[in-house]
């Protein structure tokens, strides 16, 4: 009996330790990122880092201004969502309400494949097609090499789509069928029912889809790096190259040292905070919208 | 308000167009990779890829070796032993947030913690360590989902089950959840195989078949990235890139099919 | 007395299951018709044919003619959306939309294209009054419909249907999810509504049928066994099966 109790205690402690360890990982990551990044923040200044336009880490008097890259991240995210959200919502509606179950399953499989394709490959594909195309047609413009904000937006939209679609489809399928019945019984047609009732009922799920899509896009590194070019630049001309926070870190990390490296970690902190804000937004949305689908 | 037939038709057409666009984009990408990849396939490519594939498998293996038990035990604790109190909610938030951490941040952390702080070498081992952290939330979530479908688990933290029944719980829960666990494993493999940013600072690079976990190495994805940036890294130049991309794509498709197969088998079993 | 519905030889299949067999029925204007019968006898299925809600079910095949105001609505050429504007439905469980009370009532009219605020306000007031709900909610029209009690929600659903100004209101066991007091209120309402609408109600309760209906139709295993004035059905049924059911020998 004692041996048995010992065994039980052993496993219980094992489970407890596992979960404690798992939940501390996030903290561990935060601690180390901060540990590496704080020196640059202290030395250069948080305010300057966030708002200074000049990023010249290897200059004689180095500057670590992230504002252009923060802007590039924000703009690329917003523009790619501008493309991915309508396409994602429209196709989700089509899949859930307008096509047969068989077709829906086939297309969802295709979406899952898209979701599983590694970002290097998506970036590689866009590099060899879109970027090449842009170069071919616009090389006469100064500074255009094909690698551009436009290509980055395209690649990010591609990566956001599967996230948005899978979650939106789930949300639409979870809508209480009683609402659909009631609407049709009142003489509304299918589209009216979808728009006025079902999308409204699925609102919190759809918001979650968008927020998660945004999170995915903000944190995307490889695909963006391959197609956005290397110039630290922000302009209204989408054909010009640009550099996001993520691409900046990945590109320069290989040769950075000392304060430069610390500054890269600091930009990681900025990125991290942006993502955390998005996560918290998601939590708020989910808690608010919990009671709608009664 | 949307009651005219032409409005209804317009919206229907828009949704169809969006779906068609989506499908066409995926087809374009997939066929591009396949066509280009096939045209560059040759013996040297396959030889080069074999070391990459082996390295990738090594990372997958070691990462899962760590993440699976850790993940399953955590999931069991969360589902069977707790009462959804504030502490549990915080733990869940922490683990769920791990899902949303960008891979480049994992890469920065791996460099700082494993290489600088712990003094490990850039190696397959270090890459496996960080990947085990990356896929942990996946394993936990999938195992939890599977446990949730069992009614026994709904009796959370209830010692009414009696201490004496505890081993029976384990003997019942884990076999029952095996499909959820397998699902999590397959998804995790997919994630590990395609990962670049999280491991690129800690895995080093290599061109030959690794002899141990503690050597630097190149996975399919990391090598692909290196070749794109610098085509001279490979004897085939950019052709290798296409070849590796093809191999990676095939692996992804295979894994997706495997998920469907596993679900099909277990759907039948669960009846 | 005019027939608002004239159903001739209605047959319905769910896949290979012959769920409705050769139904013939005439329904008078401005009467309350109760459909009774044991579970699975087809009464709800029949009801849903009258506003073509069965169209939504895959594998459902319907044959026969359903003449509504002398026009056959059971045909592909007839627009089912149009039909549902004149033949409204109230369901078993109250299902108000997760919107305000006001928005629930004007949902149907808005879908039809009515946007005039004054007209909508009038419609809301008159529909809620006819559904005996106006006094309860007139001060909180903008509050969520989900905050109402079960009985109130069901009356809201009735108001919602009335707002379409239909000729017929179909009710599929409208009080089975409600407590006795709410049930009594709705039964009273149905009797009041008879003056302006034709009401066809599926009910599991024979007592309810006896209380509120003018005519009763008894269904059994997909067939219409007997249809007559309620008094006759309950006091002096012509068919033995009807008598067995009424006296509780089965079902």
What is the structural class of chain B? mainly alpha
- SSE string of chain C: EEEHEEHEHHHHEHEHEEHH
Describe the largest sheet of chain C: 6 strands, mixed
Sequence of secondary-structure elements of chain B: HHHHHHHHH
Mean pLDDT of chain C: 91
Q: Indicate the mean pLDDT of chain B.
A: 87
How is this structure best described in words?
The complex is a heterotrimer of chains A (294), B (271) and C (251). Chain A is an all-alpha fold and 294 residues long. Chain A has a single domain (67-292), classed as MetI-like fold, CATH 1.10.3720. Chain A is 77% helix and 1% strand. Chain A has 12 helices and 2 strands. A two-stranded antiparallel ribbon of chain A has the order 1-2. In chain A, strand 1 and strand 2 form a beta hairpin. Chain B has one domain (40-270): MetI-like (MetI-like fold), CATH 1.10.3720. Chain B is 74% helix and 0% strand. Chain B has helices at residues 5-39, 43-81, 86-100, 103-117, 124-148, 166-176, 178-194, 220-229, 238-270. In chain B, helix 3 (86-100) packs across helix 5 (124-148). Chain C has 251 residues and is of the alpha/beta class. Chain C has one domain (3-246): P-loop containing nucleotide triphosphate hydrolases (Rossmann fold, 3-Layer(aba) Sandwich). Chain C has helices spanning 43-50, 80-86, 101-112, 117-130, 134-137, 150-162, 180-193, 206-212, 230-235, 240-246; strands at 3-14, 17-28, 32-36, 60-68, 71-72, 87-90, 168-172, 198-202, 215-220, 223-229. In chain C, strands 6-7-8-3-9-10 form a 6-stranded mixed β-sheet, with helices on both faces. In chain C, strands 2-1-4-5 form a 4-stranded antiparallel β-sheet, covered by helices on one side. In chain C, a hairpin with a 2-residue loop joins strand 9 (215-220) and strand 10 (223-229). The mean pLDDT of chain C is 91. At the A-B interface, helix 1, helix 3, helix 4, helix 5 and helix 6 of A face helix 1, helix 2, helix 3, helix 4 and helix 5 of B.
Features:
heterotrimer; A: 294 residues; mainly alpha; MetI-like fold; two-stranded antiparallel ribbon; C: 251 residues; Rossmann fold; four-stranded antiparallel beta sheet; 10 helices; 10 strands
Give the SSE map.
The complex is a heterotrimer of chains A (294), B (271) and C (251).
Chain A lengths: L1 H43 L1 H6 L3 E2 L6 E2 L2 H32 L2 H16 L2 H20 L10 H25 L3 H9 L4 H12 L1 H16 L3 H6 L17 H9 L4 H31 L6
Antiparallel strand pairs in A: 1-2
Helix pairs in contact in A: 1-12, 3-6, 3-9, 4-6, 5-6, 6-9, 7-8, 9-12, 11-12
Chain B lengths: L4 H35 L3 H39 L4 H15 L2 H15 L6 H25 L17 H11 L1 H17 L25 H10 L8 H33 L1
Helix pairs in contact in B: 1-9, 2-5, 2-7, 3-5, 4-5, 5-7, 7-9, 8-9
Chain C lengths: L2 E12 L2 E12 L3 E5 L6 H8 L9 E9 L2 E2 L7 H7 E4 L10 H12 L4 H14 L3 H4 L12 H13 L5 E5 L7 H14 L4 E5 L3 H7 L2 E6 L2 E7 H6 L4 H7 L5
Parallel strand pairs in C: 3-8, 3-9, 6-7, 7-8
Antiparallel strand pairs in C: 1-2, 1-4, 4-5, 9-10
Helix pairs in contact in C: 3-4, 3-6, 4-6, 6-7
